[in-house]
């Protein structure tokens, strides 16, 4: 096996001459550029395939030179790394379930400490609660401006007089505050 990788043949690249402003590029030039791009993509794929094949050969030759003990130690190290990753994933899942936040929002945390995950989950919940409260308040204000003749629970009234929200406010909110 040689140490040199096959070099792709270099062909002189001809730059298509751009037509004067306002004139369309001739179809033959466009077709030729497309063919050249397709050939270049095919050459890139071939080189990538060859690179993968050579990488596998290097790994196999390096693996064959190791003793049984070294191979076993390497497998044990890979298993320990995999186990550590699974433990962190389990920790994220447990915290996400306990704090009722999507586990995807905790995926960026690399620490394996439960308190760090819980602190981030609490911050996410606080932020989401603030956004939800603001959305509810905006919906209430929009509802009140859309229905100015109805009494609202926020209106001051004489004591003992019940004030009920309109029954179709939920429909109003689901409809995206449309009037």
In terms of quaternary structure, the protein is single chain
* CA-based gyration radius: 33 Å
DSSP summary, beta strand count: 0
Mean pLDDT: 79
Helix content: 55-70%
| H and E string | HHHH
- Summing up helix and strand content along with how strands pair, one would put the structural category as mainly alpha
Count the domains: 2
Task: Note the total helix count.
Answer: 4
Envelope shape:
flat
- Beta-strand share of residues: under 5%
* Largest sheet descriptor: none
Show unreliable segments.
none
Fold and architecture overview:
The mean pLDDT is 79. The protein has two domains: 25-65; 68-149 and 167-179, no CATH class. The longest helix has 38 residues, at 27-64. It is mainly α. The protein has four helices and no strands.
SSE layout and pairings?
Blueprint (H helix, E strand, L loop, with lengths): L26 H38 L3 H32 L14 H33 L22 H6 L5
Helix pairs in contact: 2-3
Entry keywords:
flat
Gist of the model:
The protein is built from four helices and no strands. The chain is mainly alpha-helical. It has two domains: 25-65; 68-149 and 167-179, no CATH class.
């Amino acid at each position: 096996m040689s140490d040199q990788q096959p070099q792709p043949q270099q062909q002189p690249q001809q730059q298509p001459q751009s037509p004067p402003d306002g004139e369309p590029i001739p179809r033959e030039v466009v077709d030729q550029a497309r063919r050249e791009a397709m050939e270049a993509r095919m050459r890139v794929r071939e080189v990538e395939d060859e690179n993968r094949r050579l990488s596998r050969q290097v790994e196999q030759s390096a693996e064959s030179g190791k003793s049984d003990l070294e191979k076993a130690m390497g497998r044990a190290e890979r298993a320990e790394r995999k186990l550590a990753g699974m433990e962190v994933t389990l920790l994220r899942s447990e915290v996400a379930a306990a704090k009722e936040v999507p586990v995807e929002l905790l995926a960026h945390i690399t620490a394996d400490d439960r308190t760090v995950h819980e602190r981030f989950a609490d911050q996410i919940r606080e932020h989401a609660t603030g956004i939800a409260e603001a959305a509810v308040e905006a919906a209430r204000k929009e509802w009140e401006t859309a229905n100015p003749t109805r009494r609202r629970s926020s209106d001051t009234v004489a004591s003992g007089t019940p004030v009920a929200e309109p029954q179709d406010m939920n429909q109003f909110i689901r409809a995206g505050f449309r009037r």
